[in-house]
What does this fold into?
Amino acid sequence: MNRRRLVVLACLSIMSQWALTNEDTFEPTPSMAPLTTIEELRPLALVGSSQLRVAFFKVFDSKLYSQSGQWHDPSKSFRFELTYSRAISGRFLAKQTSKEWDHLGFSDPRRGEWESAILAMWPDVKKGDTIIFDVDDSGVSRFYYNNEWVGSVEDPDFAPAFIAIWLSPETSRPAHRNGLLAD
It folds into this structure.
C-alpha cells in the first residue's frame, strides 16, 4: 500500500472510532435537514406570475406563491420559482443579485456572507432549468435546482432582503413586480 492510502485509512479509522465513542450524537435541527425534493414542501397558492425580459430577450418566467395566495409577509412561508429561457452562469446570477441589492441601496454586515453562500450553491442554468427559492415558516431559505435541494441560508433576515430584489417598490423591474403581485 502506498503512503497516501495508509494516511487515508488511518484517518477513516480514527474518525469512525471517534464517532462510535462520542457520547454526543448529532441530531440535525429541522432547518438544517434539507428537504430533498420540492414535492416534500407544503402546498402554497399562486399569488402571481410574470416574465422578465431584457430588451427583446426573454430571461425567465417567474411565479410567486404564499399560503393564502396573497402577498403579505416577506419573512416566512412563501416560494418564488424562476424558469430560465436561456443559459446563464451561476456566477453571473450571483453578481446580478449583488447589483440589484446595490440598486436598492441595501447594506447589511451579513451581505458578503449571503453573496458567498449564493455563489457557492447556484449552478449554471440553461433553457428550461428552474431555480426555486422556498422560505419556510421559521424563515429558513432553501434553494432548489430542477426540484433538487442545492443549499440553504438559515438567517431569517435573508429572505426579505433577497425577495426585495423583485418585490420592493424600488425594484429595477417594476412591471415584473406588478405581475408577481397580480397588480
